Amino acid sequence: MRFRSLFTRSSASALTVLLALCVLAGVWGCRKSGEADEALATVNGKKILRSEVDKYYKNQTANSPAQPEPEQADSLKLQIVRQLIDDEIMMQRAAKLNLNASDEEIDSKLNELKAPYTKEEFDKRLKDKNLTVEDLKNELRRNETVQKVLNKEINSKINISDKDISDYYNAHKAEFNLIEPQYHLARILVTNQPNPNIRNLKNSKAQNDGEAKKKVEQLHSNLESNEDFATVAMNYSEDPDTASNGGDMGFWPESALKQQGGPGQSIMNLQPGQMSGVLPVLGPGKVTTGYQIIKLIAKEQAGQREITDPRVQQNIREQLRQRREQLLKAAYYEALHNDARIENYLAENILKNPSK
Prior knowledge:
The structure is a single chain. By secondary structure, the protein is an alpha+beta fold. It has two domains: 11-157 and 328-352, Triger factor/SurA peptide-binding fold, CATH 1.10.4030.10; 180-301, Chitinase A, domain 3 (Roll), CATH 3.10.50.40. The protein contains 14 helices and nine strands. A four-stranded antiparallel beta sheet has the order 5-4-7-6. Strands 2-1-9 form a three-stranded antiparallel beta sheet. It has a two-stranded antiparallel sheet with strand order 3-8. A hairpin with a 2-residue loop joins strand 1 and strand 2 (46-49). Helix 5 (103-114) packs across helix 7 (133-153). The longest helix is centred in the C-terminal third of the chain and has 30 residues, at 310-339. The two termini are 25 Å apart.
């Protein structure tokens, strides 16, 4: 479980996750101060308080249809305490290495979060959760600081050689044999029903079918006037999964496009770099739920991809780097645990009271 990985490529979705994670401060006001201040663990003398653990626990279980059983609740709290221990170890390590995130870096990240919103919208989202800008800054500072430590201690030491790539390719050659053509697609989506979860940089959302048609036709006209597809997608697309990365949908196999009927055939007829006309998006019962513009970025023919292909090499390099990073991070955390003085009082109390 990694509940602190809050800031992703999409600053809008990152803010949404952060606001969901940071529970109302007032919720804890009804607790007795002594209980809230009780330490559930310590790391080199630094306390991890019950109030902080409870905050994350409440967020994790907020949308559950029923409250967890006592054993499930204790198990989740143990996981949360372990993660907070890991975070505190990393913050202390960052202090020793002088790698704390600077105020300028935090302000820059905060501005990225604010970008998709007007000032009024941003302030309202904070107010709705009883949060302050300082709360956001603190969370950003922890994330940025931990990433700095990992970059210095782990990522900078990973080296993938040409031999590593060659060995992997020879052992997994079948992975690079495409059994059917693949289409690398991007899209701009406009829905004909209001959806509060949709976010794009311009906060542009159609409210009905008439508005959707007008909007998508205007966007298509702008693209025909050589506006950049990715920029238009980030500014106006209503696809929550792709708008933040320029509409990129990744690779689609030809068989999947054929299942789409007429729209799929229109896409397969495109040449790389071309875009479709306005295509309907059909929901259950073949009811139109919106409109889309598809761009074919590239087409991969079926057949074996050779190791001389730069894309094959890059794919292998990324896979190997991710594997090594995961292994080294796990070993790094264990080594830091060995060097730290850790007391997990929650775990001790659970063991002392097995019948509760």
